C-alpha cells in the first residue's frame, strides 16, 4: 500500500479555482497553496460559505502504478456521501469554471484534500463491472505423472452482452450513438459506402461493433520468460470519432495465453461473442435508459489487427514471403504480386469460392488436404463465418500503421539513406546527427538519443517505432533542407519516391476526406509504385507494398483510413504493459481482473451511482493567467461579468493547441487558397476557447520539399476553436530566414509529377 501514500502520482486533475490542470498530486497541492491561498483563507474566515462538491466530472484518468493498478479517476456525484459537510448558501458563490464536456456546475471544495480522499475511495469500492469469467478449456496431461491432472487451461472472457448493456445504459452514450456528418465530407466509418448498402448498418441507430486482436508480451516476475498473451478488444463505431480514440472507450473482450490459443483455436474463446452478435441481429438487446426501454440491433462491422494476427484468426497460411498466395485478401500468386500497381489489376477472394475451397479441404484425406491447403493458402474455415452476412474479406480492415509505419516506411527510408551514402552526399554519422539534433515538436514523439544509423551487409539499419517513423517522415524534408541536402538529392528519383510515400501517409491519416481524396490517393499509389521500381527495382518491394493498391477501395467503403487503423487499440496495450508486478501464474486472469477494476472505477462512483462523464473527462488547460475583465471587449462571445483567463496550451479531444503553432482558418476543409494563422494566445472563459491569431500569407508551395513557404502579416484575428474546419494544428519552422509549414496529415496533395 506504499504507493497509495505517494505524492508523486501522475494524474490529470483541474484546479477548483481556475482552468489550469496539473499532472501530479504534489503539483496540485503546491498550486492551490501558492496561487489560491488567499481564497482558502477567505473561505475559512466566512463560516456561511457553502461547501458542496457536486458533479465534479472533469478529472481524467491517472496513469499511476498503484498496487491494484487502478488509476486515480473522476470525482463525481459524491455530494450524497458528504451531506454532513454541507450547508446551504444564500450568498453569491465564487465564480465557477468548467472545462468538461457537459460543462456541468462545479463549485469549490472546502478541504483541498477532499478530492484526493474520494479518489482513493473509488479505487477500493464498487467493483460492479468486474465480471470477468474463466472459461475452462481442457485438462492438461502431466508427462511426469503420466496421467491427466487437474491443471486447467483457462481463458479470461468478459461477457460481451453485459458489457455492452453497461455501456449503453449511460445516457451520454445513448445521446452520442448517431453523430451527423458534414455533407459531401467523409469523417468516420459510417460515412462510407459499406454502411449505406448494408441491410443492418444503413439504419442510423444500429450498433456498429469493431473487434481487434493482437498479441502482447508480458513479463512474469516468477520467471524470466516473456509470455505472449492474445488480447481481444472491442469498441463501438457509433461513438464520436475523437472520443473513441481514448483507451476508456476500448473494452477488453477476452485474453488468453498464446500457446493455449494455438492449441484450442479462436472459436472456443469467442463462442459467447458470436451468440451475442446473433441476438443483436435477430431480436435485439433491450436496455433501460432513463426508465424507458430501448431495443438495440446491430452487428460486427469491422475486424482490425495486424496482417499476421488476422491471417491466423481467419485460418489462412501465414507465409507472406514464400507462400503461394501471400495475403488472404487477394487471390494472386507470389510471382505476380510485385507487378501490380493498381487495385483494378488485383483479383480479390470471393466468399462463394472460399466456401467451396474450405469444403474441399474438409472432405479431403490427409495427403490431399495438405496439397489443397498449400494451393489455396487456407488451413481451416474462419470462425467468423458463423456471423450472418459477415464478409471476412470486405469487413477485415487493412491497418495503415502496420503496413506503412512499420513496413513500407522503414524500407523506403533505409533505401534513401543508402542512396545518399553511396552518392557521398553525407555519411551515416552525419545523417544520425541531423536526425537526432533536429528540434521536433514538444508534443510529438521523436527519435531517442540512442537512435543510430549503421551499415550491415550493404544495408542501412536503424530501429524506430511507428510513432517515431511518422515524425521522421513528417520532418525529413525540413531536416534535409536545414542541412543543405535538398539541393543535392532533389533531382533524384529516390527523393521523389520518398515524397510520394509521404503524401500517401498524409492522406491515409487524414480525418476528413471526400471523393477527390480517394481518387488522388489511388493516383499517388500508382505513381509511387512505378517511381519506386524506377529508383530501386521492383525486387526491393516487400509484400506490404501490394496492400497499398487496396487503400482506395477501403477508404471508399469505410471512410478515413485513420479510423480503421489499430493505433487506438495499440494504445490500449500500454495499460496492460504498465502492469509490471504481481502478475501471477495465471497472467490472463491478472490482466482481465485489473482492467475490469479500472473500467468499474470510471463507470461508477463510490456510492454506486453512474458517472456522467465516462466518454470524455474534460479539456486539459495548462499554465493559466487571469486577465482583466476589460479584455472581454475583444470578442462578442466573452462576458465582462465572468472571469477571463489566458493560457499557452489547451488540449481538446486529444488535440493540443500551443502558442507558436498555426491553424488553417479557411471556412472549408479543402480550400483552394489556404490561409494560416499563428497562435499568439489562447483565451478561456467557461465553455468558450478563443485563439488569437496572427495572419500569414502563403508565398509558394515548395515542390522540392512538399511544404508551404509563408510569411507573417501585421493583421490579426480571433477564431473560436470550435469553428475550425481543419482541426489539426500545424507547426511553423524557420530555416535560413524562411518560414515553412506543412499540412500533415491532410486529405489533399499538391505534389506534381516530376516528369
From TrEMBL:
This is C2H2-type domain-containing protein.
Amino acid at each position: 500500500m506504499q504507493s497509495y501514500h505517494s505524492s508523486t502520482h501522475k494524474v490529470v486533475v483541474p484546479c477548483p479555482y481556475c482552468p489550469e490542470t496539473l499532472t501530479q498530486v504534489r503539483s496540485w497541492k503546491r498550486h492551490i497553496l501558492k496561487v489560491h491561498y488567499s481564497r482558502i483563507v477567505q473561505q475559512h474566515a466566512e463560516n456561511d460559505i457553502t461547501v458542496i462538491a457536486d458533479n465534479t466530472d472533469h478529472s481524467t484518468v491517472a496513469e499511476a502504478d498503484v498496487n491494484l493498478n487502478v488509476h486515480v479517476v473522476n470525482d463525481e456525484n459524491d455530494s450524497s456521501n458528504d451531506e454532513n459537510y454541507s450547508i446551504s448558501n444564500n450568498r453569491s458563490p465564487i465564480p465557477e469554471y468548467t472545462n468538461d464536456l457537459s460543462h456541468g456546475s462545479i463549485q469549490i471544495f472546502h478541504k483541498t484534500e477532499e478530492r484526493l480522499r474520494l479518489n482513493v475511495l473509488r479505487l477500493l469500492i464498487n467493483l460492479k463491472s468486474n465480471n470477468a469469467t474463466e472459461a475452462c478449456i481442457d485438462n492438461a496431461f502431466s508427462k511426469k505423472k503420466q496421467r491427466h491432472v487437474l491443471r486447467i487451461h483457462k481463458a479470461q472472457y468478459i461477457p460481451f452482452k453485459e458489457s455492452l448493456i453497461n455501456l449503453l445504459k449511460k445516457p451520454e452514450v445513448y445521446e452520442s450513438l448517431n453523430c451527423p456528418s458534414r455533407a459531401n465530407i467523409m469523417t468516420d466509418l459510417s460515412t462510407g459506402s459499406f454502411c449505406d448498402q448494408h441491410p443492418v448498418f444503413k439504419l442510423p441507430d444500429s450498433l456498429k461493433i469493431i473487434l481487434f486482436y493482437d498479441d502482447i508480451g508480458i513479463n512474469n516476475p516468477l520467471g524470466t520468460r516473456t509470455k505472449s498473451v492474445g488480447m481481444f478488444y472491442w469498441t463501438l463505431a457509433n461513438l464520436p470519432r475523437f472520443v473513441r480514440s481514448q483507451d476508456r472507450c476500448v473494452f477488453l473482450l477476452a485474453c488468453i495465453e498464446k500457446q493455449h490459443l494455438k492449441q484450442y483455436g479462436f472459436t472456443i474463446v469467442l463462442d459467447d461473442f458470436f451468440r451475442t452478435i446473433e441476438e443483436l441481429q435477430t431480436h435485439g438487446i433491450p436496455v433501460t435508459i432513463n426508465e424507458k426501454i430501448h431495443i438495440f440491433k446491430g452487428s460486427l462491422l469491422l475486424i482490425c489487427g495486424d496482417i499476421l494476427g488476422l491471417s491466423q484468426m481467419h485460418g489462412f497460411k501465414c507465409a507472406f514471403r514464400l507462400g503461394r498466395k501471400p495475403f488472404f485478401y487477394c487471390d494472386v500468386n507470389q510471382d505476380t504480386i510485385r507487378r501490380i500497381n493498381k487495385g483494378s489489376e488485383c483479383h480479390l477472394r470471393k466468399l462463394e469460392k472460399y466456401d467451396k475451397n474450405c469444403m474441399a479441404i474438409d472432405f479431403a484425406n490427409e495427403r490431399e488436404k495438405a496439397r489443397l491447403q498449400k494451393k489455396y493458402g487456407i488451413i481451416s474455415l474462419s470462425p467468423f463465418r458463423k456471423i450472418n452476412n459477415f464478409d471476412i474479406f470486405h469487413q477485415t480492415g487493412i491497418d495503415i500503421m502496420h503496413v506503412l509505419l512499420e513496413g513500407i516506411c522503414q524500407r523506403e527510408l533505409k533505401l534513401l539513406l543508402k542512396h545518399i551514402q553511396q552518392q557521398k552526399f553525407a555519411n551515416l554519422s552525419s545523417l544520425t546527427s541531423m536526425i537526432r539534433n533536429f528540434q521536433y515538436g514538444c508534443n510529438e514523439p521523436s527519435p531517442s538519443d540512442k537512435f543510430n544509423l549503421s551499415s550491415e551487409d550493404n544495408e542501412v539499419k536503424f530501429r524506430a517505432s511507428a510513432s517515431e517513423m511518422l515524425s521522421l517522415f513528417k520532418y525529413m524534408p525540413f531536416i534535409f533542407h536545414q542541412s543543405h541536402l535538398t539541393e543535392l538529392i532533389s533531382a533524384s528519383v529516390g527523393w521523389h519516391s520518398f515524397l510520394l510515400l509521404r503524401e500517401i501517409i498524409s492522406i491515409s491519416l487524414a480525418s476528413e476526406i471526400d471523393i477527390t481524396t480517394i481518387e488522388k490517393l489511388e493516383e499517388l499509389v500508382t505513381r509511387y509504385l512505378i517511381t519506386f521500381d524506377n529508383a530501386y527495382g521492383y525486387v526491393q518491394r516487400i509484400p506490404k507494398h501490394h496492400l497499398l493498391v487496396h487503400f482506395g477501395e477501403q477508404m471508399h467503403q469505410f471512410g478515413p483510413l485513420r479510423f480503421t487503423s489499430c493505433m487506438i487499440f495499440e494504445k490500449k496495450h500500454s495499460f496492460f504493459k504498465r502492469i509490471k508486478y504481481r502478475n501471477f501464474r495465471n497472467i490472463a486472469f491478472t490482466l482481465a481482473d485489473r482492467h475490469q477494476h479500472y473500467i468499474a472505477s470510471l463507470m461508477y462512483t463510490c456510492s454506486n451511482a453512474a458517472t456522467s462523464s465516462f466518454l470524455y473527462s474534460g479539456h486539459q488547460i495548462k499554465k493559466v493567467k487571469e486577465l482583466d475583465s476589460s479584455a472581454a471587449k475583444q470578442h462578442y462571445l466573452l462576458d465582462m461579468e465572468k472571469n477571463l483567463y489566458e493560457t499557452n496550451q489547451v488540449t481538446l479531444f486529444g488535440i493540443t493547441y500551443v502558442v507558436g503553432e498555426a491553424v488553417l482558418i479557411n471556412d472549408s476543409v479543402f480550400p483552394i487558397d489556404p490561409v494560416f494563422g499563428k497562435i499568439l494566445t489562447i483565451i478561456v472563459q467557461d465553455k468558450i476557447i478563443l485563439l488569437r491569431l496572427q495572419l500569414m500569407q502563403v508565398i509558394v508551395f515548395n515542390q522540392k520539399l512538399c511544404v508551404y513557404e509563408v510569411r507573417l502579416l501585421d493583421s490579426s484575428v480571433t477564431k473560436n476553436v470550435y469553428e475550425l474546419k481543419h482541426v489539426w494544428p500545424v507547426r511553423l519552422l524557420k530555416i535560413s530566414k524562411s518560414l515553412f509549414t506543412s499540412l500533415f496529415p491532410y486529405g489533399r496533395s499538391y505534389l506534381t509529377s516530376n516528369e
